Every structure is written in C-alpha cells, then in structure tokens.
Amino acid sequence: MIEPELITKTLETKPFSGQKPGTSGLRKKVTEFQNGLYLHNFVQSIFNVLDANELKGATLVVGGDGRFYNKQAIQVIFGIAAANGIGKVLVGQNGLLSTPAISAVVRARRALGAIILTASHNPGGPNGDFGIKYNIANGGPAPESITNAIYQQTTKISEIRIAENVVGAIDLSKLGVTQFKSFTVEVIDSVSEYATLLKSIFDFNQIKSLVARKDFVFNFDAMSGVTGVYASRIFSDLLGVPLANLINCVPSEDFNGGHPDPNLTYAPELVDKMNKGLFDCGCASDGDGDRNMVLGKRFFVNPSDSVAVIASNYQSIPYFKSGLKGLARSMPTSAALDLVAKDLKIPFFEVPTGWKFFGNLMDANTLSICGEESFGTGSDHIREKDGIWAICAWLQILAVHNADAAKPFVSIESIVHQHWRKYGRNYYSRYDYEEVDTKLGDEVMKVVSDGITDRSLIGRSFNKDGQTYVIEHADNFEYKDPIDKSVSSNQGLRIIFSDGSRIIYRLSGTGSTGATIRVYFDKYEREESKLFNDTQTHLKFLISIALELSKLTEITKRTEPNVIT
Ligand code: G6P
Ligand code: ZN
C-alpha cells in the first residue's frame, strides 16, 4: 500500500489568555478547550519549545483518562504532531492510557515525551473539566522551566502547523499501525506494557494466594475512570479477584456524573461499604489512575501514613530487595515518612506539592519511594504517582503479613497500628474550601503571610484545656532542587509550633473555578496512650488556631470545609 503524503497547512491564530499550566498541566472547562483554536494553540506551543532536531522522527505517547473531548483532542494532536516532525505517535486503544501507564510507556519505548489528556480527579462531561499536560523523556511531568516556556509561547503564538489529512483518519478502537509518509500512529493496548512492569515489581503469585484466602475480601472502585480497564486485567485476570468485586470499572466520559477523586467525600459508595465492614480491603483510584485511596475494614489509611507504612515494609516488595535509595514527601504531607527515613538511615527530601519535584531525585538515583497527602503514592519504577501500584504494594504487604494461611487474618488496621507503636503517630487532616472567590482566597493567604513577613506570629501562644501551642517558626516554603539547583518559591505558608506540630495554608493549583483554600494539620504523638484517638477530636484545638490565625471564616463566610480528609 502506498503511504499517503502529509497534507500540511499553516493556520493563523491569536493567543488565548490564561494558558498557564498549574500544578499539573493546563486545566479548564471543556467549553474553553472547544473554543476555536484553543487546544491547537496550546499543543503547538508545546512543540514550539521543543528542539526541532529532537522532534524530527521522534516518538510521542498520547492518551488520556477517557473524559469527554478526549478522542477529538487526540485527533488534533496527531495532526499537529505530524506537521511538527514527530515520526511516531503511540496512542492507547480508544484513546485510553492511565497517567502512570503513559509514564511507563514513555520509558519503555524511549519516547521523547507524552501529551496526557486529563483533568485528573476533576469532574468531566460537556460542562466539566478537560486538561492537557506535557511529560518529558524520563516519563515525568515537565519541570517548571518547560511549562513556563510553553506558557510564554501561548502568549505570542501566531501560527499552527497541522497535517489536516491525519486529523480524524485514525480509528482509535483498533490496535495496529496507520502509516503516512514519514509519520506513523500505533494504537497500542492500554494495559499490557504497564502490567508487564508491575509483574516485574511485585510477587503476583504471593498476592494471588492472599486474594484466594477465604477470610480476605478485596474491593476496588475505579470511579468510572480509566483504571477500570486496568483493574479487570490486573486485579481480575492476573490476581484472581472476582469481577463482581471491581466496581464502576467501565470508563465513562463524565465519570457517570461523579467526581472521580478517591477520598472520603467523593467515594461514598466504597466508604459506606467499608464502614459496614463488608470487605477487608477497599481501594479506589481517580479519573486518570495516579491517585489511590486504601481503606481497611472500618479503617481509613491516611495517605501520609500509607506511604510511611509502604516504606517501612519495603522488604515485602521484590523490587526493593536491594534496599531503598531515599524517601521523599511533599511539604504539606505529614512527617510520618521522615521517621522511617531516619530509622532506615537513608536520605530524606521534602519537596513542594507536585509530583514533578520527585523526578529529578529519582533520575539522580537518590529516591525510591515517595508520597503526597493528596492521595498520591509511588516509586522510581516510573515518574508519576501510581494508584494501581500503591494498591498492589498494600496487597503485597498484606500478603507477607498473612503468608501463613492457617493463622488468623492480619488486617490493614493492625498493620497501621503496629506502625504507630513503632514510630509514633502523626495525627493529620486537611480541610478544603472549594470555589472560594479568588479575591477572598488571596485575602486569607495575605492575613497569614503578613504575619510571617512582619514576624508577629513568632512566639504567639495558644492555651486551652491544658494544651499549649507556641509558634516557633513561620515561613513561605521555598525549595531549592538539590540536583538542578532551581528554586521554587511561594510553595505554601507554614506555621511550625514548638512541639513540631504544623499548620499549612496553600491555594490549590489544580482547581478550575475560583480558589480552593487548603489548610493542613499535622500533630505528632509518641505516647502509647495517645495513639488511638479520633483524628478530628485530637486536632480540634490546632484546627481552631488555624482558623483564628487566618480569619478564614470571617473573610470567606465559610463555616465548614467542603472536604475533610
Ligand atoms: C496533582 C499533582 C499532585 C499534587 C496535587 C495537588 O494531583 O499531580 O502531585 O499533590 O495535584 O493539587 P493541589 O490542588 O493541592 O495543588
Ligand atoms: Zn490524577
């Protein structure tokens, strides 16, 4: 068959304002992306910052979480990629690839990078959100130097190069290759390369024995996101979980009207079943598969504890058999992981919010396991956080603790309690105030940052019911990357008390409407008698201090947060 020539055209365009990538790419309402050449502008801007020689003949991975507008956007990307010199695009079947799977494919196929179409855990559908993000050759999110350069391009873009006969010409439902002259699209299986990687990390036979136990029931909720496709192949086909225990596993363009964020508020169906004690382990993942929530029977594993428990049980996971290089967490994540690093005598890093900050440390071979309070957990097997990986890690740890089938089942709760007994417990919670008027959000942050700048916060003390908190340190977190020495400032306001307790204020970088104010609370307890209290009760006074210091209720008139983690 003769390969068709590319019919390349130049479209004139004008910049759209506001195409600045946030914590994790550009996220806007679908309707904004559908506006004229909005998407085209951003995609062309990505290619404009890449070196033309590097682009020539290179491989690019493209895929998304299956949300509304995914398939149309992919066809546009094919056309612009072809006209900009890309030699080959690998795309997931039906346009589906989870964010961690994309990272795995980029690394395995030595691709130049990837364009990921997702707004992660934000709702989808015609009135929902859409998102686009660029990942680099290590499989991780582009660093700020690149995302800023892309943004600069969006402010002055005037032309788009597009191969028009490519757009719409590829049937995404069929595996296989479509060949043009000097450009190829390969529709790949969404799961197989990622599953192969997981098989090389975990002992699947051991997990299978756990799953086969009569006294162990596992349940997974894909929240109608992309992981449904992965769950049926990995949890069911490879690990033997009955299909009936995998729920909401058909990817839907609007996540079945839901909010695909695995937390206590947005995964009510699973949380309810776990509270009723129906299963021993219940897990969920977000729209694009990088987040995870792990629940035991009537027990919530806080993400900050989750990464610490995985790290302290690293020997259960074959991939880590030669030891851990280092551990890292984002600044607002609880300090539980710090204690494990200290105990293991390995390097430890505190980075700003955003997975991209872990990539450099991994590439420099100083980081093995890391996590964030925002339900992100992962390792250096790829350069994105990885929901299915985290769930497999927990299954593997459970399998090791339950290797003897004749002994009673060791639960998730008892594994976490064991951890607290050894290291002490970091009581931890996060309050989210969503869709706050942007001005009011800034005002709240200003009240705190003024107190930091004029140092009036230092030394302030708060007393109630025999509890005393004294502010010892307050700052606006700044990070200097130890590898490339780049500096990221303005990464969250920290109030640190003399007992090590912390309050942190941040504005979310992933929302698409108004401002989301996040307030984080972290309080450490070592005494056995204080290890098993209710989190909200235990943190009550610290939380009231946080509200008082920021005048949050007064300014926003919000008396309750939308989400409590
Ligand atoms: C995304 C990033 C995470 C980050 C999270 C925080 O999920 O991949 O690395 O922790 O956003 O979002 P926020 O809304 O708090 O900026
Ligand atoms: Zn996500």
From TrEMBL:
Q: Name one GO molecular function term.
A: phosphoglucomutase activity
Q: What top-level class of enzyme does the UniProt entry assign?
A: isomerase
Q: Do the record's keywords include Phosphoprotein?
A: yes
> EC number(s) per UniProt?
5.4.2.2
GO terms for biological process, alphabetical: carbohydrate metabolic process
List the CDD domains. PGM1
- Per the record, GO CC terms? cytosol
The catalysed reaction is: alpha-D-glucose 1-phosphate = alpha-D-glucose 6-phosphate
Q: Which cofactor does the UniProt annotation name?
A: Mg(2+)
Alpha-D-phosphohexomutase alpha/beta/alpha domain span = 19-159, 193-295, 304-422
Q: Which InterPro entries match?
A: A-D-PHexomutase_a/b/a-I, A-D-PHexomutase_a/b/a-I/II/III, A-D-PHexomutase_a/b/a-II, A-D-PHexomutase_a/b/a-III, A-D-PHexomutase_C_sf, A-D-PHexomutase_CS, Alpha-D-phosphohexomutase_SF, PGM
Entry keyword set: Isomerase, Magnesium, Metal-binding, Phosphoprotein
Family statement drawn from the similarity comment of this UniProt entry: Belongs to the phosphohexose mutase family.
Q: What is this protein called?
A: phosphoglucomutase (alpha-D-glucose-1,6-bisphosphate-dependent)
Name its species.
Heterostelium pallidum (strain ATCC 26659 / Pp 5 / PN500) (Cellular slime mold)
- What gene, per UniProt, encodes this protein? pgmA
